[in-house]
């Protein structure tokens, strides 16, 4: 059984931990409001842009017409798949990072079973150890986000530029983006999205704005401008969703940790009081026994 001194030290240690988790919870809650607003504000634009690109693409011979951008037409192959996995650089966020990596690993296993070649492009540091251990030698690049306090459009542009260069240089045929879509502080949804080449839905032949439109310049010229921008916007949206999801997961995890620390403090305090009472009782018995012996 632990001594009174040891129990007192443990209680003090848990109380210190509880202060840290409580502070982290409050910080995450404050950041969550801003991150959630940014993620929700980006959704309409990214969805609309994706719909416009798909609508334009469907008008150009199904997206495979002569002279179509490689970002639309594809490489003509479906052999090498690049999995772009967006994680954070920090922990203490529950299963946030693990769930994204789990979704990417499941996709990689599925593709490998189909005989495809799989490569990984990592955003953030947290996913690297697991992916490197599970799929050694398959990580081809990593984008460092440690210098940024929150996601910026410039980051998304840089990532999109690197991915586009890799694609045009024949490094892969299809790119899948993995991130966590924010639903609430309690729920974040691991999401997969094909970003290169652009995926045209079956119903994309309907105009994205619901009316007959004549384009000036041509659909091809507009697409040449919109396709690279669409890749950047989809990546930026994913970074914003991830940021909100991370703060929500962190707030929830730290709230649970704070509650657990409180429960442990109560248990240790009861144990301490019982041990102290037992020690006092023992001393009283010894004193009484000594007095009777006299």
UniProtKB/TrEMBL annotation:
Gene: atpG
Transport listed as a keyword: yes
GO BP term, example: proton motive force-driven plasma membrane ATP synthesis
UniProt KW keywords: ATP synthesis, Cell membrane, CF(1), Hydrogen ion transport, Ion transport, Membrane, Transport
UniProt protein name: ATP synthase gamma chain
Pfam families with a match to the protein in the record: ATP-synt
Function: Produces ATP from ADP in the presence of a proton gradient across the membrane. The gamma chain is believed to be important in regulating ATPase activity and the flow of protons through the CF(0) complex.
NCBIfam families listed in its UniProt record: ATPsyn_F1gamma, PRK05621.1-4
Main location: membrane
Sequence similarity: Belongs to the ATPase gamma chain family.
Keyword Transport attributed: yes
GO cellular component terms, semicolon-separated: plasma membrane; proton-transporting ATP synthase complex
The organism of origin for this protein: Sphingobium chungbukense
CDD domains per record: F1-ATPase_gamma (cd12151)
Quaternary structure annotation from Swiss-Prot or TrEMBL: F-type ATPases have 2 components, CF(1) - the catalytic core - and CF(0) - the membrane proton channel. CF(1) has five subunits: alpha(3), beta(3), gamma(1), delta(1), epsilon(1). CF(0) has three main subunits: a, b and c.
GO MF entries: ATP binding; proton-transporting ATP synthase activity, rotational mechanism
Coiled-coil intervals: none
Membrane topology: Peripheral membrane protein
Compartment(s) of residence: Cell membrane; Membrane
HAMAP family: ATP_synth_gamma_bact
InterPro entries in UniProt: ATP_synth_F1_ATPase_gsu (IPR035968), ATP_synth_F1_gsu (IPR000131), ATP_synth_F1_gsu_CS (IPR023632)
């Amino acid at each position: 059984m632990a001594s009174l001194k040891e129990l007192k030290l443990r209680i003090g240690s848990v109380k210190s931990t509880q202060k840290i988790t409580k502070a982290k919870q409050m910080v995450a809650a404050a950041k969550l409001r801003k991150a959630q607003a940014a993620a929700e504000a980006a959704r309409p634009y990214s969805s609309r842009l994706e719909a416009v690109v798909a609508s334009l693409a469907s008008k150009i011979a199904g997206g495979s017409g002569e002279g179509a951008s490689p970002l639309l037409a594809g490489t003509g192959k479906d052999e090498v798949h690049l999995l772009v996995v967006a994680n954070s650089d920090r922990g203490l966020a529950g299963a946030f990072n693990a769930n994204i990596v789990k979704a990417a690993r499941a996709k990689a296993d599925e593709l490998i079973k189909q005989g495809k070649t799989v490569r990984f492009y990592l955003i953030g540091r947290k996913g690297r150890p697991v992916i490197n251990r599970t799929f050694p030698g398959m990580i081809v690049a990593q984008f460092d986000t440690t210098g940024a306090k929150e996601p910026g459009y410039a980051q998304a542009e840089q990532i999109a530029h690197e991915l586009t260069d890799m694609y045009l240089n024949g490094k892969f045929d299809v790119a899948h983006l993995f991130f966590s879509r924010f639903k609430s502080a309690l729920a974040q949804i691991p999401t997969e999205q094909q970003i290169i080449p652009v995926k045209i839905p079956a119903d994309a032949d309907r105009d994205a704005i619901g009316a007959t439109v004549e384009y000036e310049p041509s659909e091809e010229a507009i697409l040449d401008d919109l396709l690279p921008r669409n890749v950047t916007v989809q990546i930026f949206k994913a970074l914003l969703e991830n940021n909100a999801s991370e703060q929500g997961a962190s707030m929830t995890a730290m709230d649970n940790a704070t509650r657990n620390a409180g429960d442990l403090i109560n248990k240790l305090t009861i144990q301490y009081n019982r041990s102290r009472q037992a020690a006092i009782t023992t001393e009283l018995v010894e004193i009484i026994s000594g007095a009777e012996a006299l």
